[in-house]
Design brief:
The chain is mainly α and 132 residues long. The protein contains five helices and no strands.
């Protein structure tokens, strides 16, 4: 009974946990956020904030690069720490600048930010393209 309560029947694999985290963050960011922005770019309908004061179009392009390009890298486990740093910055801007660090408005950005910081610190794990 104690083994059941302690969940000892589940293998202890941080690398598997990192794989799950990478896939969840990468796929959900592309699917729920990046893909729509990419389609907006191709349709010519660019309406975007300029939180970094570099212009709407450059901000939009950088976000698409992060949310689509870096998310693909995260999911594959390729250049994971670099991609995670870019996405953590992206979500940090979304949370701290766009949402004013208000958890009520920016909870999702905050959670993504935390997940990307974990991947930045831990790396991709052994189930990745750039495994060690």
């Amino acid at each position: 009974m104690q083994k059941l309560l302690r969940l000892e029947f589940i293998a202890n694999s941080p690398d598997f946990g990192l794989l799950v985290l990478r896939l969840l963050l990468g796929v959900s960011m592309i699917w729920l956020h990046g893909w729509g922005k990419l389609m907006s770019l191709f349709s010519g309908k660019i309406s975007f904030l300029d939180p970094l004061h570099i212009g709407q179009t450059p901000s939009f392009l950088l976000v698409i690069f992060a949310e689509v390009g870096c998310s693909v890298l995260i999911a594959l486990g390729l250049f994971t720490r670099l991609a995670a740093a870019v996405l953590a910055f992206n979500m940090g801007v979304a949370f701290f600048v766009v949402n004013g660090a208000a958890l009520a408005k920016g909870e999702l950005a905050w959670l993504y930010f935390g997940g990307y910081l974990v991947l930045f610190a831990a790396g991709a794990g052994k189930f990745s393209v750039d495994k060690k």
